[in-house]
Specification:
Layout: E1 9-13, H1 17-28, E2 32-36, H2 40-47, H3 58-65, E3 70-73, H4 76-82, E4 85-88, H5 103-115, E5 120-124, H6 132-142, E6 150-154, H7 164-169, E7 174-177, H8 181-195, E8 218-221, H9 223-254, H10 258-266, H11 287-300, H12 306-330, E9 337-341, H13 356-366, E10 370-374, H14 379-385, E11 392-394, H15 398-402, E12 407-410, H16 422-428, E13 433-436, H17 443-448, E14 452-454
Parallel strand pairs: 1-2, 1-4, 2-3, 4-5, 5-6, 7-8, 9-10, 9-12, 10-11, 12-13, 13-14
Bound molecules: uridine-5'-diphosphate-glucuronic acid.
Length: 482
């Protein structure tokens, strides 16, 4: 794009979700980017044109800039020396205590420090607890770097897996926690193509909600505030999900529809309609880890954030409730054939970390069921933790998963799961039972199509079960199947 006057040289350390997407997007807005990882095989794969994650727009951006303004390397020293700004985007996994394990950040900070030969802005991009910024500063100083040769800033990332590129380029806000005008100026310059709106006028720019007339706002804060903004945002969103899940349970007991209730709550502009979808609970590499880490931060500063305990507890219970729902439809599990749609922690990604779907599949297998699972992207990753076996089958079509199954479970929200041919599905299943953990279907439509349809926080069953459960439902077809 035509942003040469603002072009900066940026090093991004870490080629995981955040690092790789940030690298590709910084190149897309006109910067020179060196993406560093210490995993030689991964770097080679990226240099040779591989794309390690399933993410919309990412393959095109990598293909466009790789070998031109986007390089991949294991050489952190050279990358640091060539860059004005060094973004740290390495993992901050959960430690045994629930706190964030910052050993990768620590190691990278030391290595950056040993490479600094001119003024650098070091940018925390990983999700880190408040005070990390100060720790990084101390580590760099301890390595003998004079105070005036660097600043440590915080620029949290709010991208979601599956829509990461659009979230980055069409951000709701850009938070810059900067301790000095000099560092703030460099960060503002890096994001200028987005914040000025010029990017959105470039032919071929990635489409999304932002336009030249409505570019993302910048919020400049202290570094500590920026760190807390990230943790508090994720904790709040997780709380919103747990809240609606409890409301869903009330709806179910009271005979109301949580979808109607969520619409009614969400129309209040102070609350907003997003993240009010009831379901089997939140998962992924962020919410579970970040809620625990933020709770730990609160403990460390002497604040009782018991509400976050409750958010986590509700999320755990939600999976158990879903399992109870399956039990209420099938009575027993041993030997039953269960079709499963969805393994990733949500639709649009191949990520299975902390996926409620994986927990549910594991429990089904423990209870003796035969599982036939389909996910458009996550099967390969899932096979690494639940190998294919006599009772665990990975299939590549939703109707194959449903073939002769005693019930079909919907565990994440890929668009194609919401667009099934209901007549075909009805014919394919052994019993027309669909248990939808994501409320992808309208209960009345499912009832009309002849299904026994159980979903989250919605009243009644589409086709009444026999008092002792669907086990005794008459066979639907007379061809001797099942
Ligand atoms: C989340 C945040 O949304 C991002 O802003 C943040 O940058 C990211 O974590 C991170 O810290 O890196 P992500 O984990 O990719 O992004 O996924 P979400 O789309 O937020 O979904 C998280 C989980 O909540 C999923 O399991 C999803 O199915 C569930 N969810 C989401 C619901 O159950 N109901 C909803 O209404 C929304």
């Amino acid at each position: 794009m035509d942003a040469k006057r603002n072009s900066a040289t940026i090093a991004v350390v870490g080629s995981g979700y955040v690092g790789l997407v940030a690298s590709a997007c910084f190149a897309e807005i006109g910067h020179r980017v060196v993406c560093v990882d210490n995993d030689e095989a991964k770097v080679r794969m990226l240099q040779e044109g591989g794309v390690p994650i399933h993410e919309e727009h990412l393959p095109e951006l990598l293909a466009r800039y790789r070998g031109k303004t986007l390089e991949f390397t294991t050489d952190l020293r050279a990358a640091t020396q060539s860059a004005q700004a060094v973004f740290i985007a390495v993992g901050t996994p959960q430690s045994e205590t629930g706190s964030a394990d910052l050993s990768y950040v620590d190691a990278v900070a030391s290595e950056i420090a040993r490479s600094i030969d001119s003024y650098k802005v070091i940018v925390e991009k990983s999700t880190v607890p408040v005070y990390t910024n100060e720790w990084i500063r101390r580590v760099v100083e301890r390595n003998g770097v004079p105070k005036d040769l660097f600043d440590v800033t915080s620029n949290p990332e709010f991208l979601r897996e599956g829509t990461a590129v659009v979230d980055f380029l069409h951000a709701d806000r850009i938070v810059l926690g900067a301790p000095s005008d000099r560092s703030a100026e460099i960060l503002r310059n890096i994001y200028e193509p987005l914040t000025s709106g010029s990017y959105y006028n470039v032919p071929g720019s990635v489409p999304g909600p932002r336009t030249a007339l409505d570019p993302p706002p910048v919020l400049q804060t202290s570094t500590k505030a920026a760190e807390i903004i990230k943790h508090a945002s994720n904790a709040f969103l997780a709380a919103k999900i747990s809240f609606i899940n409890v409301v869903a349970n009330i709806c179910e007991a009271a005979g109301a529809d949580v979808e109607e209730v969520a619409r009614g709550i969400g129309m209040d502009s102070r609350i907003g309609p997003k993240f009010l979808r009831a379901g089997v609970g939140y998962g992924g590499s962020c919410f579970p880890k970040d809620v625990a880490a933020f709770r730990h931060v609160a403990e460390q500063v002497g604040v009782d954030f018991a509400m976050l305990h409750e958010v986590e507890k509700i999320n755990e219970e939600q999976k158990q409730r879903f399992f109870q729902k399956i039990r209420s439809a099938l009575w027993t599990f041993r030997g039953k054939k269960i079709g499963v749609l969805g393994l990733a922690f949500k639709g649009g990604t191949d990520d299975i970390r902390e996926s409620p779907a994986v927990d549910i599949v594991k429990k089904l297998l423990t209870e003796g069921s035969n599982v036939y699972a389909y996910d458009p992207a996550a099967a390969k990753r899932c096979q690494e933790i639940i190998p294919e076996s006599a009772r665990m089958h990975y299939v590549d079509d939703p109707y194959v998963a449903a073939q002769d199954a005693d019930a079909l479970l919907i565990l994440n929200d890929w668009q194609e799961f919401a667009e099934l041919d209901l007549a075909k599905l009805h014919y394919t299943l052994r019993y027309p039972i669909v248990i939808d953990g994501r409320n992808l279907y309208d209960a009345a439509t499912m009832s009309k199509a002849g299904f026994t349809y159980l979903s989250m926080g919605r009243p009644g069953l589409a086709q009444p079960l026999d008092p002792v459960g669907a086990f005794f439902l008459p066979r639907r077809r007379e061809n001797g199947k099942g």
